[in-house]
Amino acid sequence: MRTPAPETRPVALTIAGSDSGGGAGIQADLATMVAHGVFGTSAITAVTAQNTRGVESSFALPTAELDAQIDAVTGDFSVGAAKTGMLATTEIVETVAERAREFDFPLVVDPVMVATTGDRLLEPAAERAYEDLLAEATLATPNADEAEVLTGTVVEDADSAPEAGTALLETGVDAVLVKGGHVPGEQVQDILVTADGSQTFEHPRIDTEATHGSGCSLAAAIAARLANGDELADAVAGATDFLARAVRYYYDVGEGPGAVNHAVDLRNAAAREATAEEVEVILERLVATDVSALVPEVGMNVVGATPYAESANEMAAVEGRVHRTLSGVQPTRGVRFGASSHVASVLLEMRESVPHLRFALNCRYDDAVGEALESLEWDIVENGQIDGRDAPPAVVLETGSEGTEPMAYVVAPDLQTLLERVLTLDEAVDNAERSLRP
């Protein structure tokens, strides 16, 4: 018989409704907790029949059943943090508020009060009961509409959000994260308000309606990070970063807009090794073929992004670049993540408009390369002109400025396409150089 090797993980608790569509509620909470390395437990407040198109019906569980679930979890597990979601009725809000007085762990309250359509989800008595619950909470995470319901303050910009958060602190909650998803602007600004002041967490707004489960997932991510021992501000910073990626790379499921991708960080981490190996394959082919004719004075680099990369540290590249030598092209050192800044920044910029682009390689750009590109009739754009395109280009040009070497960046969504383009360009440049010789 094999010896078991048990693993100990922090435990988090979600007190929320069930979403039969899997994108929100306890399903989203548990998936998010697992993605953050936490063992998730649950106490279900209501059962809903819903999908990506909307809610078709809901049934609130008796408070005695909710009590029994909380007893079962807290009586057996060492809970490190908890969060609340849909509480459905006045009686359920009051029950959770009463139980929260016994909690000796952080509690994140996501006050689910207003639907995306703007409709109120709770009766006025339940809204008032939230004040007692907030008094026991470590953090409240209202969106702009919910902050207005709780405080009467209209949240319409980064100035009014701290005002609403400060008003909410009067309920006794330790801190308030006023979410900016419903506030207009190019940037989403989530503002954390505490007795010591406010802190803003800013991310570019994603052009999508697939935000189903975003509020649940954010609160669950914060609770999971608190259970892992993070300080509150660190937990909020990590959770908002997680959500920005989860919304951008959402699940395209169902006939509605889709749902946030709770596993996006796990999948991104799992893709690192394969991405580095792909860059090594490209590097080996560059050396074997000897693409000296393409190497610029500053050296060449090949960059591979994980499928969900959002920074240069999530891109594998050649440390020290590839240079021309008397015996052909040679890399200075090996492949590692974060080894490129310039080529990685170009690829990141292109991924803002064409997120499935994953590979880029910089080449010299002169008359021979220009003639070769013209003969190939590839789709070519100048850097900065990629916005709004339905299909990615094959090459992006930087014509250079004073003191800056002109550059051509070959880009591709996959390893094979990049290799084919680079080797084709190398051959075309060789032909062009022969034609330009006197």
TrEMBL record:
<keyword id="KW-0808">Transferase</keyword>
<feature type="domain" description="Thiamine-phosphate synthase ThiN">
    <location>
        <begin position="278"/>
        <end position="423"/>
    </location>
</feature>
<dbReference type="Pfam" id="PF10120">
    <property type="entry name" value="ThiN"/>
</dbReference>
<protein>
    <submittedName>
        <fullName>Bifunctional hydroxymethylpyrimidine kinase/phosphomethylpyrimidine kinase</fullName>
    </submittedName>
</protein>
<keyword id="KW-0547">Nucleotide-binding</keyword>
<dbReference type="GO" id="GO:0008972">
    <property type="term" value="F:phosphomethylpyrimidine kinase activity"/>
</dbReference>
<dbReference type="GO" id="GO:0009228">
    <property type="term" value="P:thiamine biosynthetic process"/>
</dbReference>
<dbReference type="GO" id="GO:0008902">
    <property type="term" value="F:hydroxymethylpyrimidine kinase activity"/>
</dbReference>
<dbReference type="InterPro" id="IPR019293">
    <property type="entry name" value="ThiN"/>
</dbReference>
<dbReference type="InterPro" id="IPR036409">
    <property type="entry name" value="Aldolase_II/adducin_N_sf"/>
</dbReference>
<dbReference type="InterPro" id="IPR013749">
    <property type="entry name" value="PM/HMP-P_kinase-1"/>
</dbReference>
<dbReference type="InterPro" id="IPR004399">
    <property type="entry name" value="HMP/HMP-P_kinase_dom"/>
</dbReference>
<dbReference type="GO" id="GO:0005829">
    <property type="term" value="C:cytosol"/>
</dbReference>
<dbReference type="Pfam" id="PF08543">
    <property type="entry name" value="Phos_pyr_kin"/>
</dbReference>
<feature type="domain" description="Pyridoxamine kinase/Phosphomethylpyrimidine kinase">
    <location>
        <begin position="19"/>
        <end position="261"/>
    </location>
</feature>
<dbReference type="GO" id="GO:0005524">
    <property type="term" value="F:ATP binding"/>
</dbReference>
<dbReference type="InterPro" id="IPR029056">
    <property type="entry name" value="Ribokinase-like"/>
</dbReference>
<keyword id="KW-0067">ATP-binding</keyword>
<keyword id="KW-0418">Kinase</keyword>
